Amino acid sequence: MSLLIRGGRIIDSTSTDDEGRTADVLVDGDRIVQVLDAGSEVRADDVLDATGCVVSPGFVDLHVHLREPGREESETIETGSRAAARGGFTAVVAMPNTEPPHDSRVVVDFVRDQGRRAGLCEVVPSGCITVGRAGQTLAPFAELREAGVRFFTDDGNGVQDAQLMRRALEYAGQLGLTLAQHCEVASLTHGAVMHEGACCSRLGLPGWPSLAEELMVHRDIELCRLTGSPVHFLHLSTERSVDMVRVAKAEGLPVTAEAAPHHFTLTDEALSGFDPTFKVNPPLRTPADIAALKRGLADGTIDAIATDHAPHAPHLKELPLDQAPPGMLGLETALALALTELAMPLRDVVAALSWKPAAIAHLADRHGRPIAAGEPANLTVFDPSATWTIDRGQLASRSRNTPYHGRTVRGRVRHTVFGGRAVVVDGAATK
Ligand code: DOR
User: Cis omega (within 30 of 0) on the bond before 69?
Assistant: First the structure.
């Protein structure tokens, strides 16, 4: 099957500005076979109109909860993959906090196979750092590596024990793996519901101090310095975290970081109505933190925009605020929030959504590639100026817990091509 993407503006890692170049992209099988001058005479089995759109390498999300196995009432690998494809993602890293978790070959093989079966994007299982994510014993890194896992995290939990984290980094370094930390010192967050600050005092809710994140960022920068092994910081939320990562990078340490759209678009004030939709871990913070995250994204301190897509079924998110699980949907709204809220060149937004996270997740051989003949056809076509209103009823996710219902945003994914096949056409999933 051949596919022609007509009349789009190409922005990829070789672009030096936001103008890109208007061209037609011919795909055959799972590869790009030709990039032609726009309007060239060429035949193809299918044509996707990209007029007025950007054609970019497919997006890569480093941080997605797909809930399968174990919590299929909230999401399945198929429904989550469909949400990913609609958001322009051609690869998603599946977080390990499933039931059972990703600490054995059988589970990661299952997750990858379910992703293949869905066929809507590449589902890349992460591995646990510790058995059962319990923070006691290292997970079998070598066995998981053999199963293709390169990115390890206990996400949902931070690794509390510094000695265990040191050993994990030493071992990961030998095996060429990347460890990703959920930065939370648990002794500082017991019972916490929202950011510790003026708003939580006013509401009378237990506070979650910024320090809980920053202490672990600081510790892991020092463990990175000691071991020389790469550390990726998940969902950073505070100004001081960003500042520490900036300094560590300037010192040449192999650290990388991501930020989630909700952390650069919403503040703790969103919890004034006690609505659990706005409960998330780490919590929504302050305008100063938002400004710092935006600065960090703009200057490259924060490498990637990652959604922390965390579906929770309605009966869970309808629990009282202190009992409801933390987390919010992200896959289908990430691009629009980034384009609406970040004053960054388009190329830099695409970098943070595509080739930079692809490199962090060890996927750079097949995602985030330049758009050129011979490259894998994992592509996103989006209209950067289309405005639309987010409607939770229209999402492909099995859950409904978006904090953006009713918000009007700019930038919309039009088509997604995964493995040479159009899995989203004009905003609708084809399967
Ligand atoms: O808000 C969150 N939800 N943060 C996490 O780290 C875990 C996630 C989940 O699994 O729901």
Answer: yes
